[in-house]
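Dear Dr. V.,

Thank you for agreeing to look over these. As mentioned in my earlier message, I'm a first-year student in the group and I'm still getting used to reading structure tokens, so any feedback on how I've presented them would be very welcome. I ran two proteins. I've put each sequence directly above its structure. The first is here:
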Amino acid sequence: MVIEEKNPWPKGRNRSNGRIAKEKEKAYNFCLDHVKWTNEIAYCPEYRPTKEELMDPLIYLQKIAPDASKYGICKIISPWEVSVPAAHVLTKEIKDFKFEALVQNLQVDTKGAVYKEDRKYTYGTFEHKANEEFLRRFPRAGGRPLSYTEKRFWLQMAHDTETVEYAVNVEGSAFSSNPNDELATSNCNLKNLKKLPESVFRHLNRTVPGITDPMLYIGMIYSIFAWHVEDQYLYSINYLHSGEPKTWYGVPSHEALQFEKVAMYHVFASENFSPTWEDGVFRRIAEKTTMFPPNILQQHSVPVYKALQMPGEFVVTFPRAYHGGFNNGFNCSEAVNFALKDWFPFGKDAGNRYARLRKQLFVPYEELLVKEAMLLTEYTRESASTITAFIQYMESLNRNLMSLRNPNVPFVYAPKSETLICSLCHRDCYLASVQCVCRIRCLFHEAAKLHCSKGCNITVYLDHEILSVETKAYDLQREEIMSKHTGVCSCIEDGLHLGRELNTKLGESGASSSTKPAK
């Protein structure tokens, strides 16, 4: 660790729940010079939109994203006054609201030290416990400046073995159902984001808690949200309903690989990673148990920015932007993921990494990409990233279909069903899959892996809309596509023709036995 001063209190110190000893308070004050680096972290951008600008918050985010994304995170101050507080919603509007909390050790790496207690809290009982914990750590009346609280946090991370509790991923929402609450009835109610016209998630016909639908986070002093990127490199937005502030640190997405490199060499130095170290470090950080001081990143030329989120403020994190932080006392926040059109290149990179790790996606990337592309009518600056990702996807699909053109490999239309999952890499197979009686494979593997190792006959199953999807790809950027590869449509049509010929030769019974899909 960068903080190398000796522990100012003995290892066998008292860990009772009584008031903090004056000697310990003095020792912290004496050590504050060791964390002066907290003063050197620049703040992320802060925006103050009007109610009119937030009529559609996703359009507003598209407007500020070119600048705000350079910092990894940004803060948006809500123009609305909340008329129904979160405490009322969670104690009066929602009946029998109870939740569990994680117990966190205050240390850099909490792997194996985060667990749940067998206890259910109400909003009031957790608030009472959180306030007691705050007074135990800060017994003096009048409070301290937040800069002091931040410095104390990092000193305690270096020296403490005490625990705090944090209720994370709690199902529910603290936005009121009262029709007179302006914020709750606006599109900035996080429950409404997925339905907006600019939301990629509007194509989904199912919910994914915490991804498409918001969840609650109820914290106490120094409870931690460890360094991480969002699932599938998605956007996230967090609204602080009430309580004490949250301190955030963010790293721009273009520094994500450098962030992982610093973590490997300077945080996980004792661990052995494979030659594909990036994926190993990513898997390790994805456990959300690591919170190291951001000055380690700064010392290795990785920019870090911070935000101090107050009640009534939103914090947005951008695709593949590492972020983490802590709570400055009892508070209640709510967060959800979302995706805009410019997310698709990040979604592609995340999908490739998840495939290497055999980690299943939370939302079906291929389905979302195709459905979004099918609605585009022209090539514009706003749609450019979607179109590029779509064309690259279709080109790759076509190359692999071409490799399977064989009189003994029929192409047939698949029956309508839910999205299939590749048994090799856990990608979703939206437009095409290779199947035998043993398993399902996506089209993004070398030819040898697409054939069955047991010698079973394989069949290429195609979605009924695949030809119209290919036609759409030509329409969106005909000249570029035609200059780069041969016609996808002809490949698919030839494959389907071969499938029909093969079925005719084998007869109905033979065809059904050889092309039976995996279950």
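The second protein is here, in the same arrangement:
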Amino acid sequence: MEPLIERDGIPATEVKPARPKHNRSFISYCFKTDWWLENGCSILSVLFLMGMIILLAHIDGQPLSNWPFAVSPNAFISVLSTASKACLIQPVSECLGQLKWLHILQSKRVDRITKLQDFDNASRGPLGSLHFFFTRPTKSLMPYLGCIITLAAIATDPFAQQILSFGKHLALADGVHSELRTSQYVYSWNEDAIISLERATRLSLDNEPQLPNLSCTGFLCKYPPFASLGVASECQDVARRSQRVCYPYETGRNCTFTTPIGFQLQTWQMAYNASLLPDYNNTVASISTYNYSNLFEGGPLQRLAILMAPIVYYNQSNDSQIFECTIKLYAIEYTKWNTTYGIINPGRTKTFPPAYLRGTVAPDAMDDDDLANFTVTDPGFNYQRKFGITSLNILSIVDILDANLIVNEWSDWGDTAYAFLSNSHDIPATVNRVTAGLSYQMIDGPNATVTPVPVWNDVITITVHWAWISLPVTLVLAACLFLLVIVYQTHHAGHLIWKSSLTPLLLLQESYPLLSAGDKPVWTQFYLKKRTAVIANHLTQ
């Protein structure tokens, strides 16, 4: 056994007091001593973290197609996060190594030297840090903080993987527009336009009206509110106010109904026990009137009466339905219309009655190509208030309505209008569909006004979930604070900076005191061999 020798009058069993504090300032001490590597790693860790935050802020909400590199954004974030973690682990490990020497100098425990292994294991990784909590070699809080940082760093990579997500969102297409065509002035339609109006009106008898031709060159087009010239209907049930006169005959009866405004409608009903019944539920009659001059006085474009009576005659006379409908020219407002993937999504419509503007040409003297001008006086109408339509087009509208809604005594069961009206469950709704289909086709006329419409595309965008970056930020701040505290404790106590070095354990008592971890012990050949032999003997059985 080596003898215990006193030095400087201090027994070998006692700890020598620390040397006086450093004369240099704390700032100078941080950057001009052996802490430069740890300080540099901490600065790099902060820079990598800041780079990651700046990158995330730049790409948040951006389309993935704008990403200029072949490597995915997730890969960039993972690299920056891993680099930041690697840089912060180095100073934390060295600070834990320094704490074992501070523990030797400051702890009052007699067995403190036997706990050095716990500090050394904690500085080597997560398993040693976890074991440190079970052995609890010290009551100081700082070593436990270092162990918590080491353990929490394990979760950095999983957290970084959750920062970015990719989803489909709508984005405004740059430099791409669609067109909205609306009719302010309806000049003479050509033959194709007339055929299109007739087809749309006929289809509306039994189906939803054919929607207007609203084009869109992208995923979504949101059309601004617009107005166009069109027609609309208003129907009233006048069955109770109509007069009925019926004449029975052998297989049924024939009835004539007179409506309040003077329409006379005739229909027939078969006896209940008739051997041959048609495929329709009702017998239908409808007539209309049209006064050209009245139109320009604010009157209706067309008035019609429609009667529906059950075909089977068996005390069912009270089931007859009689409607008087008025169809007028209107300025129609369209709001909240859009198209998605080429499918038109109808919005809202609102009608505004226009007033005729008298000109130099009297209504009765108008030629086919003369333009009838109207204006909307309603203060709630926020669009171009003037509209116009040629007299020939007005007559075309009346003819189209007559062809689809009028059933007279010469109509037979094969007539299209008769077939649709006789099976209708809601006459006002049917008439409204017809006028709506006609109005939709009038929107895009041959002299339509063109308005550019922005286009939205369905693009994959990058979304940053900022909550997941909380752990990397917290770890970097905690590691920097941990380093700052350990450096301050070492500076304040005047201790040498040994960190993870094992040199103090190799020194002989007779060796000269070292001033820093960079100094080498001044050993003679004899003492060097002697100390090596002692250590080597502990390494063999």
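From my reading of the second output: The first helix runs from residue 26 to 31. Residues 1-10, 276-280 have pLDDT under 50 and may be disordered. Does that match how you would interpret it?

Kind regards,
E.
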